[in-house]
Design brief:
Layout lengths: L3 H9 L1 H9 L4 E5 L9 E6 L2 E7 L11 H11 L3 E7 L6 H4 L9 E2 L6 E5 L2 E5 L14 H11 L3 E5 L5 H8 L4 E6 L2 H13 L7 E5 L2 H10 L4 E6 L4 E4 L2 E4 H13 L2 E11 L6 H14 L2 E5 L16 E7 L1
Parallel strand pairs: 3-4, 8-9, 8-11, 9-10, 11-14
Antiparallel strand pairs: 1-2, 2-3, 4-5, 6-7, 12-13, 14-16, 15-16
Helix pairs in contact: 5-6, 8-9
The structure holds S-adenosylmethionine.
Length: 322
């Protein structure tokens, strides 16, 4: 079967994929919407499971047009199943008509409920049919590695921790202790499972089901200090503590984090909020850093996400006291 766009995407990744394999990574983006072609899909490979992300309404294509693509993706990557995640125009239809919670795949054979994958030799569990997000944000692969290196011997605070991917990577790299904060108890349990999967049952990992800003305020009152603070919030969220909007709340968040940062510590801030122009967001971060006497350094986007222009829309910056 021929599909020039998908085959091209696969072949331009060959060198990178070889390096990924050597570094103990078996998950990557095979086809990136907007970079590999002007079609409303991305293909993510997690071990032998493929996640097909379909962005309804961005172009006139129907998802059924991508069945041959999915078949070829299975062949090229020697995977077993394709699960479909649709970003529907009408969000109210998401639960009803979306096969996101269905163990039956869109193509191929059903996967386990939890699938073990690895990134830079660290293991993570992903869940292919447990909602829109499967448990690991692969676009943070490079930043995760940089953070792990910086974590050695540090007390690490991971805010908006989700399934604890940053937390586990830091623990594996020799952090002294890690605290993971997230409003969802469900994802913190998942983080626990990721710690256990890596033999870290005895590691001093604190999990805090809490709102990030409230946690920071309380931590400052208790004079807690952290050597590395990771802040990778969603663009927008609602919880019992109220509404969080990265556009409105980023400054409060960063200021509150500075209050619990050890002298000489590092802050990492990241966001894929689409309302900021990429260049403007970077400028805003650098201006803030200067006003707070921090040095700022850009994070990175993995090769399989960022293959051309315009760049992949992920803002990430490391901030250290100058
Ligand atoms: C985009 S994910 C974060 C990704 C994560 N940093 C990672 O790299 O795996 C968003 C997470 O933020 C959590 N969250 C949303 N609002 C929050 C809040 N106000 N305080 C703490 N956690 C929050 C959600 O429960 C979710 O797990």
């Amino acid at each position: 079967m021929k599909n020039i766009q998908l085959e091209k995407a696969f072949s331009r990744r060959q060198e990178g994929l070889l390096k990924l394999r050597e570094s103990g990574t078996n998950c990557y983006r095979l086809f990136s919407k907007g970079y590999d072609g002007e079609v409303p899909v991305s293909f993510d490979v997690f071990g032998d499971v493929i996640i097909l992300n379909y962005y309804e309404g961005e172009y006139s294509a129907s998802v059924e047009e991508f069945r041959p693509w999915a078949k070829l993706a299975l062949e090229l990557t020697q995977s077993q199943s394709v699960y479909l995640k649709s970003a529907l125009k009408d969000r109210s239809q998401e639960r009803a008509n979306n096969p996101m919670y269905d163990l039956k795949p869109w193509m191929g054979v059903a996967s386990q409920e939890s699938v073990e994958v690895s990134e830079n030799g660290v293991k993570y569990l992903i869940r292919p049919y447990d909602g829109y997000q499967v448990g690991l944000f692969m676009d943070q692969r490079e930043n995760r590695r940089t953070l792990a290196r910086a974590a050695k011997g540090k007390r690490v605070l991971n805010l908006f921790a989700y399934t604890g991917a940053f937390s586990v990577a830091c623990a594996m790299a020799g952090a002294e202790a890690v605290t993971s904060v997230d409003v969802s108890k469900k994802v913190l349990k998942w983080a626990d499972a990721n710690f256990a999967l890596n033999g870290l049952e005895k590691f001093p990992h604190q999990r805090r089901p809490d709102d990030a800003v409230s946690f920071l305020k309380r931590a400052a009152r208790r004079s807690e200090r952290y050597g590395l603070i990771i802040i990778d919030p969603p663009s927008f969220s609602r919880s019992d503590s109220g509404v969080f909007s990265v556009e409105k709340d980023w400054k409060t968040l960063l200021k509150s984090a500075v209050a619990v940062l050890e002298p000489g510590g590092t802050l990492f801030f990241s966001s894929n909020f689409r309302g900021w122009e990429q260049e403007d967001a970077v400028d805003i971060m650098y201006q803030w850093a200067e006003s707070m006497s921090f040095d700022a350094e850009d994070g990175s986007v993995p090769f399989d996400f960022n293959l051309g222009e315009p760049g992949y829309p992920l803002l990430s910056v490391f901030l250290r006291k100058s």
